[in-house]
Design a protein that fits this description.
Helices cover 29% and strands 25% of the residues. Strand 21 and strand 22 form a beta hairpin. Helix 10 packs across helix 11 and helix 10 packs across helix 12.
Length: 553
């Protein structure tokens, strides 16, 4: 089914965008994460990634042309698909009609307001120059509302361009939100822990002494004179130059060595009095992030335990055996957007897809020996999870019925194999995706998993890196869980649950010996995967896991 892509809002003040350059042409194949175009906003020229895969069927805005946010930018679908309904009618036509009606109403209202102003109506207040209303940004393609996790600035604080204003929780992750303006934080519109739709008033920034109530009540469009726009454009260009130089200057220490750290990490370090030069960064290219500051512990000299004299030991009172009178209590906390998104997705999967489960027990003796040999090589590190991922990818190639999606009247069978890897984070669970896992070697899979899992835990993973999976693996073996079942990560048709490796008595060649085994449980969507198909997949998977040499070719 074709997907309509609209002009995105890439900054909080963006009202229209200009296509500076198309990186794909009509007829080209598009993968999730591919750069579709370079789009020029009111602040910068930014790369725009595709959240869909397929063939680029239509380009709605040519290079050099500008269009308002939410205007048809492109259509991606299957090659040869009929998109005339999306171009000439159907839901898109209604949206355009509604949009034109809204614009007509807005224009009528503006005309009415203008006439009132001409007649001497002084009730409308113009937004003073230099005052900026910051709105709740759209930080992901599916974001409809955001929750303010924490404010890094308070009312009355001075704000510079590039400063982190707040941490905003979306349906996918908690992200730092930078200010595009300089001035004093005059008003906070959404308190910590509160949620609000995209474009709700988040804050007001401007000069000291501004009448905030008047700004909030000012009519829309009151700050749109040609002179003001020209000044803003010039200020924007100048601020970009200043921002670049300021960031370069703040990333250097007194002795000239550069220290790369996120603005939030710098803020927390400053508040805690931590010297950034003594902190090791775990972010990209050694960049210091929030987690590094929170986990930083200065080196301390070990303290000797104080000696206790015999008299002190003798004076220790006897432990009372009285039963304490406890108090009952309950604490209720607000569900995060990520928690609600997880609940919605998994609830939908469990109650719409008829799950059934198949479990096998795998001999891991050869896998243990092979992993030890592989990891003895220089600069090589492979986990058992990496071996399972590679084995699954190879088994999916032999059993494509498992690499499918139920689509109502049709079933999609994917020719590519993108492995989802469940990763636990503080707020819940995310599923980074290893693209074309069947074409990667064990060490490549291991490196990809390590990188994406690190990004996920540090809240730096992009939405495009968590989309497009065709099969998912969930591993709780590292927690000592021997066997469990997972809910299918839709639109996948199956998910594999990986348990712990257990040493126990087993029967080999008619004798009882000590062996190592691991249980694997496959959850299948019965609409697309029958019992026999799932069983055959597990037989192939067992062969690869028990004979790792077959995965090295």
């Amino acid at each position: 089914m074709a997907e309509v892509i609209n002009m995105p809002r890439l900054s909080d003040t963006m009202e229209e965008g200009t296509v500076a350059k198309w990186l794909k042409n009509v007829g080209d194949k598009v993968e999730e994460g591919d750069i579709l175009a370079e789009i020029e906003t009111d602040k910068a020229t930014m790369e725009f990634e595709s959240f869909y895969q397929g063939t680029l069927l239509h380009i709605g805005i040519e290079e050099g042309d500008g269009a308002p946010v939410d205007t048809l930018l492109a259509i991606i679908g299957e090659e040869g698909e009929d998109i005339s309904g999306l171009l000439n009618g159907g839901g898109s036509q209604k949206k355009e009609e509604n949009a034109s009606e809204d614009k007509a109403e807005e224009k009528s209202a503006e005309t009415s307001d203008d006439s009132k102003d001409e007649e001497g109506d002084t009730s409308a207040t113009e937004i003073p120059e230099g005052v900026e209303i910051v709105k709740m940004p759209r930080l992901s393609d599916t974001m409809e509302e955001g929750t303010v996790a924490s404010w890094l600035k308070q009312v009355g604080d001075e704000v510079e361009e590039g400063d982190i204003l707040a941490e905003i929780e979306t349906d996918k992750a908690t992200m730092e939100f930078e200010s595009f303006y300089s001035g004093k934080l005059l008003h906070i519109g959404i308190q910590e822990g509160e949620s609000a739709p995209v474009d709700a008033v988040l804050a007001v920034i401007g000069p000291d002494g501004t009448d905030v109530d008047a700004v909030l009540n000012a009519k829309s469009g009151s700050k749109k004179s040609t002179k003001t726009e020209a000044k803003k454009e010039e200020a924007s260009k100048a601020s970009e130059t200043e921002d670049t130089s300021s960031k370069e200057s703040t990333s250097a220490t007194s002795d000239g060595n550069r220290i790369f750290a996120s603005p939030l990490a710098k803020k927390i370090a400053e508040d805690k009095g931590i010297d950034l030069s003594k902190v090791s960064g775990t972010g990209d290219n050694g960049r210091i992030i929030k987690k590094d500051i929170e986990n930083y512990k200065p080196a301390e000299a070990p303290k000797a335990a104080p000696e206790v004299s015999k008299s002190e030991k003798a004076s220790v009172p006897a432990v009372s055996m009285a039963i304490p009178a406890g108090e009952e209590g309950v604490e209720e906390s607000k569900n995060s957007n990520m928690r609600k998104a997880i609940a919605k997705a998994l609830g939908n999967s469990k109650f719409t897809a008829p799950h059934f489960y198949l479990t096998i027990e795998v001999d891991m003796d050869n896998a243990i020996a092979s992993r030890a040999q592989i990891n003895s090589l220089p600069d090589t590190k492979v986990s058992f999870n990496d071996m399972v991922l590679k084995a699954c990818a190879m088994a999916l190639r032999k059993h494509p019925q498992v690499n499918t999606t139920w689509n109502g009247d049709t079933t999609k069978q994917y020719k590519h194999i993108h492995m989802g890897v469940a990763v636990a984070v503080d707020e819940g669970l995310v599923v980074p995706v290893i693209k074309h896992a069947d074409l990667l070697g064990l060490t490549q899979i291991g490196a990809a998993v390590k990188e994406l899992a690190g990004k996920a835990r540090n809240k730096k993973i992009a939405p495009s890196e968590m989309e497009g999976s065709t099969f998912t693996v969930s591993n709780l073996g590292m927690f000592g869980i021997q066997e469990f079942t997972s809910i299918i990560n839709q639109p996948n048709s199956a998910i594999l649950s990986v348990g712990a490796i257990v040493e126990k008595p087993v029967v080999k060649n008619g004798e009882i010996v000590i062996g190592n085994t691991m249980k694997l449980t496959l959850a299948c969507d019965h609409r697309t995967v029958d019992g026999a198909v799932g069983a055959q997949f597990l037989q192939t998977l067992r062969y690869y896991v028990e004979n790792p040499v077959t995965m090295l070719a």
